[in-house]
Design goal:
This protein is α/β, with parallel strands linked by helices. Helix content is 45%, strand content 10%. Strands 4-3-6-5-7 form a five-stranded mixed β-sheet. Strand 1, helix 5 and strand 2 form a beta-alpha-beta unit.
Length: 287
């Protein structure tokens, strides 16, 4: 079996040894000094920026995974810690994997993480997830019991949705929660989405810019809203807590998918009468 097509040479090289479930050996010994230096630079930059901006559970998870501060972590070492906390583990993949393979991993508490890291020219922006995004962005919250359960439930939901033509709805839920979610805390609004947490510029934009809308999370609203993959989000959805996110997604989605099929989708920047708007964006960035 071959992995999903990718332009990265590292991916193509790793493809030679890809297993049926799309996993590969991490190849930790193969990282260059430059690879480790890029990790450290990105890590230090975010570690400085995130206190006061990210949900405290993320920082707790990060501290717990402190092996990652000196360079690209060996997934085996990370897995010993993560396994003890929540039973999750990371498996190395050469790049994006097909939806069903991804869901199957999540449903079994395995998080597929890309085994190559971006180059220095891509420090601030790259088009597909790399090791820094996947590990720094996603792994800390996998050490949180409630979030860990949510991710597994998502995987199981994906396997159920696959035959129903409903994957776009689930993809939007993932995008606006796991990747670009904001959360209310007693200290104020915080980020928790991995796509934000692993990006310096979006960590600032998502919280501080007057441009985007910030809307209270509503399951069906989120699942009807298209998203931008090439730029900052026009709308962010804000959960009340991880428990609330978990509980509001525990219902059977089948009737929801049917309702959504019968209705039009919303554009990323739109506001609705029914929205609980925390801040109305002025749209200045995307205009
Ligand atoms: N409850 C969803 C279903 O019935 C599964 C799910 C849980 C999906 C959590 C996403 C997140 O399919
Ligand atoms: Fe991601």
């Amino acid at each position: 079996m071959l992995p999903a097509p990718s332009s990265s040479e590292a991916v193509i090289a790793a493809a030679a040894n890809v297993r049926a479930d799309y996993t590969v050996d991490q190849g930790w010994e193969g990282y260059s000094a430059e690879d480790h230096a890029i990790w450290r630079e990105l890590f230090d930059r975010q570690a400085k920026l995130l206190p006061g901006r990210v949900v405290p559970e993320f920082l707790e998870g990060l501290e717990f995974l402190s092996v990652a501060a000196d360079g690209i972590p060996d997934f085996n070492r990370l897995n010993e810690l993560l396994g003890k906390a929540t039973g999750w583990r990371i498996v190395a993949v050469p790049g994006l994997v097909p939806d069903e393979v991804f869901f199957e991993h999540l449903a079994n508490r395995r998080f597929p993480a890309t085994n190559w890291i971006r180059s220095r020219a891509q420090l601030d922006y790259l088009e597909e997830p790399d090791l820094f995004h996947d590990v720094f962005g996603h792994v800390p919250l996998l050490a949180n019991p409630v979030f860990a359960d949510y991710m597994q439930a998502y995987g199981k939901g994906g396997l159920r949705a696959s035959g129903k033509g409903a994957l776009q709805y689930l993809a939007r839920l993932y995008w606006y929660s796991v990747e670009f979610g904001l959360i209310q805390t007693p200290e104020g609004l915080r980020i928790y989405g991995a796509g934000i947490v692993s990006s310096k510029s979006e960590s600032i934009f998502a919280l501080e810019s007057s441009s985007p809308n910030r809307i209270l999370f509503d399951l069906e609203r989120v699942m009807s809203t298209r998203y931008r993959i090439d730029d900052f989000q026009e709308s962010y959805f804000v959960i009340k807590s991880f428990k609330h996110l978990f509980d509001s997604t525990a219902q059977d989605f089948a009737p929801i998918y049917q309702r959504l099929d019968a209705r039009a989708d919303y554009d990323p920047g739109v506001l609705l009468e029914s929205d609980d708007v925390l801040s109305r964006g002025d749209g200045s960035y995307h205009r």
